[in-house]
Amino acid sequence: MKNLFSVLRSDQVADDLIQVIGTIVDASKEIAFRVRQGALAGVLGSTQDENIQGETQKHLDIISNQLLKDLLLACPAVAAIASEEEDTVVAGTSTGQYLVAFDPLDGSSNIDINGQIGTIFSIYRSQDLIPHGSELQFQQAGSQQVCAGYVLYGPSTLLAITTGKGTRCFTLDSTQGNFLLTADLIQLAPQTQEFAINTSNARFWSEDMRAYIDDLVLGETGPRQKRFNMRWNAAMVGDVHRVLTRSGIFLYPSDSRNPKQPAKLRLLYEANPMALLIENAGGKAWSESQRILDIQPQQLHERVAVILGSADEVDECLSYLRR
User: How far apart are CA 285 and CA 62, in angstroms?
Assistant: First the structure.
């Protein structure tokens, strides 16, 4: 089997970018070890602290963030990092060529129940005319990403990654410590009969979104004339991995719970990297009004509605929202 770095070199990925990817991979291996140890390593449970998002931090959130932060800031190719767990950008090497944004541990509510969790990351080129520690560095559309991916900590540790030349999946061989290619050039089927959404929020959705989901639930007895199954892991990384593995549609729409925060998922740390992975696998990724990768970010922790997955089903959902 081919390992990660041989595949990256065959894709003619620049050596300095490979160095950054390798740093993220090294951190993910250590996080995977801590996850496997669970209660034995004392990493379960919540702290008394909240992150910048106003979310209670888990012990493993803090550990994962610090591991990624320490290793990336020691990498000479990294100009700056932005983390979902940090208030602001953290400056790296002034001559670094790359910016890294990451969600150190997506799905942290699953930690204590031994559910699916993962690390999501995104890499951009640094901008020469902007100070390397400035938040303005990260105000780039998702289409400017040079690499995106996630590491899923489950029964096996999986890395899904794209550098713009297709989406691939690698599995960690724990005996050798290498990520080996196990799914090459993933392609989503354009149609699907599977969807992922948190239906407990249904009463807060728009009428058009409720109508779309209601028609999926009606299955073959409704206007769609086919049965749909719903799946929900409470971790974007797990739900998107299922979509990449067997197609489907993932949705986290806007809602009316908090008028000051109508969307849940972060553009920089979650929506953009997942959108790049999905598009490089032949799928589509939209907010409720535009292609996610075209959105020009205005804030470091900006949030956005997310609809991604099999292309035809994303189009079908959008057709309901345009009525």
Answer: 30
Element (H, E) at 151: strand 147-153
User: Which CATH number belongs to the domain containing residue 308 in this structure?
Assistant: 3.40.190.80
Q: pLDDT tens across 112-150, in order?
A: 888 899 999 999 999 999 999 999 999 999 999 999 999
Residue 189 lies in a domain: no
54 contacts 74 by C-beta, under 8 angstroms:
no
Q: Phi and psi dihedrals of 242, rounded to 5?
A: -65, -40
**CATH number where 14 lies:** 3.30.540.10
Rounded to whole angstroms, the Cα distance separating 28 from 120 reads 10
Q: In 202-252, which residue ranges form alpha helices assigned H by DSSP? A: 207-218, 236-246
Q: What is the pTM of this model?
A: 0.94
Enclosing domain of residue 120: 4-183
**Residue 278 near residue 160, CB atoms below 8 Å:** no
- 12 and 156, same structural domain? yes
Q: Are 223 and 214 in contact (CB under 8 A)?
A: no
In a domain, 188, yes or no: no
Say how many residues make up the chain. Answer: 323
- Count how many domains the chain has: 2
